[in-house]
Amino acid sequence: MYDVLARTRDDAPGEAFDKIARACGLGYPGGPLIDKMSRGGNSNAFQFPKTKFPDGSLDFSFSGVKTAALNLINRFEMQSRKDGLEIGEVLDYRDFVASYQQAIVDVLAENTIEAAKRHDVSTVCIAGGVSANSALRTKMTALCEAENLRLYVPPLVLCTDNAAMIASAGYYSYIAGRTDGMDLNACPSLEI
Q: Which of these, 107, 162, 116, lies nearest to 139 by C-alpha position?
């Protein structure tokens, strides 16, 4: 049995990384490229919004941070054109992506810890592609230690996407006797 404690209301974190990586000319997939570029950058150089919902929901929203980042890039591009400079001479991309990454990591980690507290759990596991992010792993480790929570982090080879997690859920459903026929249609919002 699964209980959904929170979900994204718009852009998922991986999507938010991909879009800003593309805007910075880094390429795809954006998460690993931003993670690598942010090393040595000042994660406090720029302040990005971190969405919290007034109803106390632990849902995620990354459209605001993505829009703020795009607006900042555009502002620097306009300023550099006005001054006759290349954008790299004006915007320190290492600090920019470090700050952007930190805003996303903070929301993911803090909401996860809050969910663990609200539901009185002692073990936390991160999964999916974004769980490969070094800043997320570091922050989750520190917060879990501070809150006396056990943290499970998959090896990087298992952090490519959620396919392994879905396969595992399918395995346990099969063991429990739940199966579907070959006529089952792909539906991304199917209940697990």
A: 107
What would the pLDDT profile of 121-145 be if each residue is shown by its tens digit? 999 999 888 999 999 999 999 999 9
**CA 173, 179, 182, 185 torsion-angle sign:** negative
My answer on whether omega of the bond before 13 falls inside 30° of 0, hence cis, is no
Cβ(125)–Cβ(151) under 8 Å? yes
Q: Domain 13-175: what homologous superfamily?
A: ATPase, nucleotide binding domain (3.30.420.40)
Could you tell me what percentage of the chain is helix, strand and coil, using 3-state DSSP and rounding each to the nearest 5?
55, 5, 40
Q: Which residues pair with 151 in a beta bridge?
A: 124
CA separation, residue 44 to residues 56, 67, 75, 114, 131 (Å): 26, 18, 19, 23, 22
> In this structure, what token pair is assigned to residue 98?
């470090």
In 3D space, the residue among 70, 72, 53, 71 whose CA is nearest the CA of residue 61 turns out to be 53
Give residue 186's identity as a one-letter amino acid code: A
Alpha carbons 67 and 85: distance in angstroms, whole number:
24
* Nearest partner of 148 among 120, 169, 174, 129, judged by Cα: 120
Q: What is the pTM of this model?
A: 0.83
Q: For 166-175, write each residue's pLDDT tens digit.
A: 778 888 889 9
Report how far residue 34's alpha carbon sits from residue 133's, in angstroms, rounded to the nearest whole number. Answer: 9
Q: Is the pLDDT of residue 192 over 90?
A: no
